[in-house]
Amino acid sequence: MSREAAENLYSAIEKTTGLLDVPCSRDKVWPVLSAFQAAIPKAAILFRLATDARHAGEVNCHMMMLPGDVDPYALALSKGLLEGTDHPVGDLLADIEKRLPVESYGIDFGVVGGFQKAWSCFPGDSMQKLSDLAEIPSMATGLAANMDLFARHGLAENVTLIGMDYEHKTMNVYFGEADECLKPEAVKSMLRDMEMPEPSEQMLNFARQAFGFYATLSWDSPKIQRFCYSAITREPLSLLERVDPKIEHFLTEIPYGVDEPKVVYLATSPKEGEYCKVNAYYQWRPRLVKHMHASVSESAD
């Protein structure tokens, strides 16, 4: 059954990329699906498209899985999907697992770029403290550098998920239960503290309807590289005042998850400004989906 599920997922990826004029090579995609095929039947699986320059010409696939005997980074290494590294990002997932409760894992891979990311998701009723995360030896130094900033905005004990980007040597920290931070004045204040561009009206309106957000941090700089708000809706076009043609094409043409909610992201960074990402479900798994959105969902960077 796992092999059949992997073949069906590959066919769906091939069809999706064809609709979006993105090249799809079985030699690139199948090794990832083969490595994780045992998890595919029970995973929540999403396809993602983004409008920033870094993701041009790419479609990503995100899988959220219940924990197994092998962590996703170790499995990716063993299957040759990644090269080993001396960078601390290579130790972070295992170090988190040793010290904190992990309820589920996630992975992200690009149809063009291959295996890229992994996530450690904490239990929905057990958000973690920034102070505990900062003590992890391999944790990005950018987290400790911004602890006071996050604490000023009431986020010292609100961490739901950590993401590791092995391609770019960065990490994401996801926050939940932060309604006060989603109000327009709070959004302006927090983005100003992060030295992000002044938010547009679209960003302010979007944040009102978001369920959480995440920051992208690194080991090389104390500055927050990106900040992203996340929302889930059955009508994603209604959340965006300006819709990139690529996003509209993705939402109207992709045949998967038509009746399921879409996960929409609005991100900002000093380099790229504001841009949008959208996830559409290929496979919906209620237990994982419920946890994923309680934990601020997705995958991304």
UniProtKB/TrEMBL annotation:
Residues forming coiled coils: none
Entry keyword annotation includes Transferase: yes
Family: Belongs to the aromatic prenyltransferase family.
A Pfam family: PTase_Orf2
Keyword list, A-Z: Prenyltransferase, Transferase
Record's keyword annotation contains Transferase: yes
GO molecular function terms noted in the UniProt entry: prenyltransferase activity
Protein name: Aromatic prenyltransferase Orf2
Species name: Actinomadura hallensis
